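fyi for ur records
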Amino acid sequence: MNRNNKTIISIVSVIIAVVICFFGYNFYQKKQAEVVSAEKLTAIHEVIKKFNDGNDRNERLNLLKDTLDEQSKYNLNSYKDSKVQDEYKNSITTMRTYFQNDYDSTIKTNTLSDVSAVSDEKVITDNKTKLDELTKTIDKEKDITFETEQQAQNKQSEIEKLVKKYEERINELKAKSKDTKTNKENSAKNSEEKSGKANATHYENEYFSIDVPQKWAGIWSFTEHSDSNNLGTSSQPAKVYSFKHDSEGNVPFGGAQAIYVFPNGLPSKSESSPMLKKISSNVYLGPGAASGFFSTDGRPDRATIKVK
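which gave:
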């Protein structure tokens, strides 16, 4: 064998060795990648099983966060297995779906079908509070539990619409409550004025005024009602003011008496009534009971009346 042939054989041998090493290394790399992929798939399956079996919400959230981090790191590798990538995506979708279903469940639980028909402010406030808390939770978790910012915004907008309805209804109820309270206060004030239950000794209206003895202060009262059936009629009703005083301390006897006012004139059926004593054209004094109430002869121990 000459020298040239030896050289050629040597070169061919080197080339064959290099090729063998190259394919051997690639084969080794492939086998190593398969081992890594198998380990990754097993790890992902174990995470999903732990996620599904778990009961702690924070633990599940951490598992999702860790899986997202692992996915990001894996995608930076030179050797990526599409099966592993798909398994990461499917697992993350499964975990995110759990949290999004949890959000939806909270929304459903705290949704009032017809808030305008709810009159209990506490019920609306409780539901609104739960939704406000959910909004805060989503804002804190959205980078983990949603794939895109838009998805999170859509969910938060859905909640905000409900909360706005609740706030409007709460404001309506507060306004009604305020009006009711004002009406009650006015009613109580008017009732106090009409009943004369006070330490005052003077009362007057558009038809007459009365003064009671000082010793009656706090023990006299009156009520007012309309009469269109007895002495009054539907076209000529009577306003009946019934006064009374109780017996107390230096007032040994109680008494009562009514004043009849006929704004539209005295009905014919009452013109000759023995119950009425004319004081003016439309003000009449009714009969007294017990010790009476009004004085018609200047007695100082009775109330006096002046017509207008």
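The longest strand covers residues 220-227. thats all i got for now
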